[in-house]
Amino acid sequence: MSKRIFACSLAVIGMATSLGMALADSAPQHVQSGTYKVEPGHTQVVFSLLHFGFTNYSGLFSGASGSLTLDSAHPAASKLTISVPVSSVQTTSDRLTEELKGADWLDAGKYPTATFVSTQVTPDGKGGASITGNFTLHGVTRPLTLQAHYVGSGVNPMDKAYTVGFQATGVIKRSEFGVKTYVPMVGDDVTLTLAGAFEKQN
């Protein structure tokens, strides 16, 4: 092995060791109570629906904002608010992305924001919870329940902010929100998955 390859190998091993030490704590009982805000750079809302019966097609929204109030001693008292700009929608097709922003679909010009505001949190005792709330899309507000589970928490080694992460999933019928284009050829049931990173404020 040459000296250069050996040096590179040591650097990779050192980096892996450092990252390993920086991994988030996966024990939900260790989460710090407090008020958090969405860290938009690492928060995504992914949507998935059946496309003409061939594939489960996915896209995502970014640029989320919002807050999370965590009470580790009384998890049922926790609260979640999330907003995403509809115009942030992205898919693997530039043409489809622009279509989704238009009046036949999400009409981002008229309805620029999608929001979820929790009304009830029911912990499962295992680091997860059912989060029921009001979801607003395309100018329509309807109840939505998200099944959430804790991913990890700790100090982010990049920005030094104490961060907690959750994954949450729920299903809506887009026709109930007035988004009916191509139903049922393009699926009515839409799975929403929130990969949420939240930074502690106090």
UniProtKB/TrEMBL annotation:
It holds the Pfam family YceI. Residues 35-199 form the Lipid/polyisoprenoid-binding YceI-like domain. Keywords: Signal. InterPro entries: Lipid/polyisoprenoid-bd_YceI, TTHA0802/YceI-like_sf. Residues 1-24 form the signal peptide. This is Polyisoprenoid-binding protein.
